[in-house]
Structure to design on (381 residues):
């Protein structure tokens, strides 16, 4: 089967510019890439076809030969099935060769493009109390990091001198090696992709442009933060190489467990023990909150586990909005360490309460449901 014209494969005219050819190949590569079309043989073949066409037309000398002699000019180095598979299709080596710049932009795996590298991002694990999380706080951090050398201002060159443009790559950070019809682009080995070389290194940083130092930062923790939240401090990470941009600092927040309060989003929860007398006759109990103590009114005949909602006593949302609530679940305590007289009084009370069922409505209801259940399963066990 004869090969299709390379211009037809890429969908461009014979007068197309290098940029138009590159854009067309990017579009086809995105559409037919084997990783995006697993188990689709036709997509793999279209990807190979587009790749072969781009290889021929993206290099000016090869394109001129193709325009003059057609497919015959490409034989020997670029046969139609001469490459191993990509991803899971086939067992060949990496097929990208000099296409790292294209696929890096598409699939996130590109090479460093030259020039000094940006500084690394840093992470600081910060543990705060629940009160600090609710109210917010400004804290001082001491961060060990790499900072720009004060002596050479981050250039890496001795004071009074400056980095020189790399002669091997002319400052591009990459070199192109021609091997027959192949043209392979690699990181420049002379400058390691920086595009510049230090001829006279700074004595303070030995040409690195950075020195180790601990710096102090003032960080504002906003009200409402929770465990897992991250605060980004732009350009407060490590300094870049040879004066390049600094990385960022990420403060990872962890809120310590509280002995009284639990938290669910913007709401707080706590248990409030109350006496048998208060639960029966009603009364007031003092409840702690993160804004001070308040009096909680307990109605008469309150049952254990009843929840009272205190509006606006919870946590403010970190991005603004209505503050959450405090949920107070009362737990009725059974008296302990009773004297003989106290036990006698309770027994007397119990006798008066057992004369009818109106004093224990839940117990009466539960006993009725239990009796019904046993009647239903009678004869089955």
């Amino acid at each position: 089967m004869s090969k299709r014209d390379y211009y037809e494969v890429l969908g461009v005219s014979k007068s197309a510019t290098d940029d138009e050819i590159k854009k067309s190949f990017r579009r086809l590569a995105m559409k037919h890439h084997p990783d995006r079309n697993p188990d689709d043989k036709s997509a793999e073949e279209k990807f190979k076809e587009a790749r072969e066409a781009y290889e021929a037309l993206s290099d000016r000398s090869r394109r001129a030969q193709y325009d003059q002699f057609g497919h015959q000019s490409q034989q020997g180095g670029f046969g139609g099935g001469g490459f191993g598979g990509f991803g899971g299709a086939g067992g060949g080596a990496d097929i990208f060769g000099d296409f790292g710049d294209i696929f890096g932009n598409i699939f996130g795996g590109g090479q460093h493009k030259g020039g000094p590298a940006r500084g690394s991002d840093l992470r600081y694990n910060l543990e705060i109390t629940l009160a600090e999380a609710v109210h917010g706080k400004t804290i001082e951090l001491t961060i060990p990091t790499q900072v720009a050398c004060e002596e050479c201002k981050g250039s890496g060159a001795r004071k009074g001198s400056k980095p020189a443009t790399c002669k091997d790559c002319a400052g591009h950070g990459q070199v192109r090696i021609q091997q027959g019809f192949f043209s392979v682009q690699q990181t420049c080995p002379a400058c390691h992709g920086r595009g510049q070389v230090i001829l006279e290194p700074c004595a303070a940083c030995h040409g690195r442009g950075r020195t180790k130092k601990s710096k102090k930062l003032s960080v504002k923790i906003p009200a409402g933060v929770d465990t897992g939240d991250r605060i980004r401090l732009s350009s407060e990470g490590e300094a870049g190489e040879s004066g390049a941009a600094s990385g960022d600092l990420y403060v990872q927040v962890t809120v310590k467990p509280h002995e009284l309060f639990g938290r669910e989003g913007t709401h707080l929860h706590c248990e409030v023990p109350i006496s048998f007398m208060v639960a029966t006759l009603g009364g007031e109990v003092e409840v702690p909150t993160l804004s001070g103590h308040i009096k909680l009114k307990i109605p008469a005949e309150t049952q254990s586990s009843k929840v009272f909602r205190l509006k606006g006593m919870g946590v403010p949302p970190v991005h603004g909005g209505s503050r959450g609530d405090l949920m107070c679940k009362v737990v009725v305590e059974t008296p302990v360490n009773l004297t003989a007289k106290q036990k006698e009084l309770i027994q007397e009370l119990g006798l008066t309460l057992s004369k009818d069922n109106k004093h224990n409505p839940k117990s009466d209801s539960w006993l009725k449901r239990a009796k019904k259940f046993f009647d239903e399963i009678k004869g089955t066990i």
About this structure: The longest strand covers residues 137-148.
